[in-house]
Structures are given as C-alpha cells and as structure tokens.
Amino acid sequence: MDKSSQKNLVSRVKRIGGQVAGIERMLVDRRYCVDILNQIAAVRSALDSLGVELLTRHLESCVLGHGSESEHQNAKPMTQQELLAEVKTALSRFLK
User: Fold this and answer.
1) Is the backbone of residue 44 left (phi > 0), alpha (psi -120 to 50) or beta?
2) What is the pTM of this model?
C-alpha cells in the first residue's frame, strides 16, 4: 500500500475514533437515546465502508496481484487458494 493510501485509511480510522469518542460524550451528557443510536449507526456505516475498502485493496494487491510484488509480505508465501480461503474467513467474520 502506498503512503498516500495508508495516510487516507489512517485518517478515516481517526475520524471514526472521534465519532466513537462523541458517543461517549453523548452518554456522559445524557443525550437523547435516538440521537446516540443515530451516531452509533453512523460509526457502523463508517466501519463497514472502511472494511470494504480494505477488502477491495487486499483482493487487488494480495490475491489478484499475487506474485507481482504488490502483495503484503504476509501474503507472499501463500498460494492464491490459501489467500482466497483467508478472504472467505475474513468475510464471514466481517459480515456477522
């Protein structure tokens, strides 16, 4: 992953962290439950979007790009079949 992409992902995670901290403040401030639930939904959506982005990048660079030196160090010793099995496991966890 190039530096720009990594910086973008880290920025998104920090933004999500800020949203989670906002939920904590809302609870401390005894905000209206529906407002808190709406913020929780926003965080879940942001996490889902981040997960889809990471999955897409993994498929492109590690699975489809296997052997092209674009893959992560952890993916290099694996076969494409092993990588696909790993993606299947990750997806089953992600979709729960």
Assistant:
1) alpha
2) 0.86
Q: Find the helix packing angle between 33-58 and 80-94, rounded to 10°.
A: 170
Domain with 47, as residue range(s), is 3-94
Q: Which CATH number covers residue 75? A: 1.20.58.1000
Q: Which residues make Cβ contacts (< 8 Å) with residue 71, sequence separation at least 6?
A: 61, 62, 65
CA angle 39, 44, 49 (to 5 degrees): 125
Q: How many domains does the chain have?
A: 1
Query: End-to-end distance of the chain based on CA atoms, in angstroms?
Result: 27
pLDDT < 70: residue spans in the chain: none
